[in-house]
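Bit of a strange request maybe. I'm writing a small parser for structure token strings and I need a real example to test against, not something I typed by hand. Could someone generate the tokens for this chain?
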Amino acid sequence: MLAMASESDRHFDEEASERYSMGTLSDEEAEQIEEHLLVCEACRRRVVESDAYVAAMRRAAAELRRVKKRGRNSPPTSPG
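Reply from user aminoacidic:
Good idea to test on real output. This should exercise your parser:
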């Protein structure tokens, strides 16, 4: 079940937002968030921010993998 920030405001917490953006929630949890997003602008903004962060981290990780792979396949450079 989702952790809500508090019972009174019923917003989901930052961790749930990040997990939603990463696609690691159960179907039931994702459905709960999606229903809440239909009515809550504040949580929609939080998910947009989480989506941007997750996308940036994925791009950075992919670039790091490309750089490391190129480094292994590159011929040694001679000094000088």
